[in-house]
Amino acid sequence: MKIDKLNIGIILGSTRQGRVSPKVGEWVKEIAEKRGDANYEIVDIAEFNLPFVGEGASEEVGLNKWKEKIMQLDGFVFITQEYNHSITGALKNALDSAYKEWNNKAAGIVSYGSTGGARAAEHLRGILAELQVASVRTHPTLSLFTDFENFKEFKPADLHLDNVNAMLDQVLAWSGALKTLR
Predict the structure, then answer these.
(1) Closest CA to 138 of 125, 154, 157, 151
(2) What single DSSP character describes residue 36?
(3) pLDDT at 2 (0 to 100)
(4) Helices marked H in 53-144
(5) Strand partners, 154
(6) pTM to 2 decimal places
(7) pLDDT tens-digit profile of 9-38?
(8) Rounded distance between C-alpha atoms, residue 162 and residue 159, angstroms
(9) Which long-range contacts (CB under 8 A, 24 or more apart) does 115-118 make?
(10) Which helix H or strand E contains 167, and what residues bound it?
(11) Cα separation of 67 and 56, whole Å?
């Protein structure tokens, strides 16, 4: 019996000009692709032009594309930065813009901020639980002080490689197990 590779989306949690999440996402993707154990892709919420939940259907095309993309994925790695002790409004809106599409999937979190983005990751875990997404334990945290030069240029320490790989191991195990429920 042939088992297809899982599809894992690396979701960029910011839409701001000058954001560094694309660099962090590409770094995670590069590590992930070397493993050869799943199909990994960057999913940039900025590309979907999502309307605020409950406001207007003028962007329904973007919303439908968003839901289709989430449905195609078996699991996720969220790249989240900490703003005011939480996730970005854009990420919260993207999460709230779908429901059943998230159900019975798994997610890892890579966060960054002055405290490694730990508070944003904790908020994200609560939201994911409500969407029936199992968040895995291993959580790479990146510090603005040691993993970014001048708070902008991403230069991660090698010590994060083991954590990223351990997180990916857990995301794949849980995503595979939860796929049987869908």
Answers:
(1) 125
(2) -
(3) 52
(4) 60-72, 89-96, 118-130
(5) 148
(6) 0.94
(7) 999 999 999 899 999 999 999 999 999 999
(8) 7
(9) 115/82, 115/141, 115/143, 116/141, 116/142, 116/143, 117/80, 117/81, 117/82, 117/141, 117/142, 118/82
(10) helix 160-179
(11) 17
d(CA 73, CA 40): 9
The two three-digit tokens of residue 29, written as one number: 């993707």
Contact by Cβ (8 Å): 22, 10: no
Choose among 73, 65, 156, 60: nearest CA to 111.
156
Question: Helix or strand or coil: residue 140?
Answer: coil
Task: Work out the pLDDT band at 54, boundaries 50, 70, 90.
Answer: confident
Residue 142, beta-bridge partner list: 112
Q: What is the pLDDT of residues 126-142, one digit of tens each?
A: 999 999 999 999 999 99
Task: Please give the domain boundaries of the chain with CATH numbers for all domains.
Answer: 6-179 (3.40.50.360)
CA atoms of 179 and 182, how far apart (whole Å): 5
Beta strands in 13-149 (DSSP E): 38-44, 75-81, 105-113, 133-135, 141-143, 148-149
CA dihedral 53, 54, 55, 58 (to 10 degrees): 80
* 77 contacts 10 by C-beta, under 8 angstroms: yes
* Token pair listed for 181: 């429920």
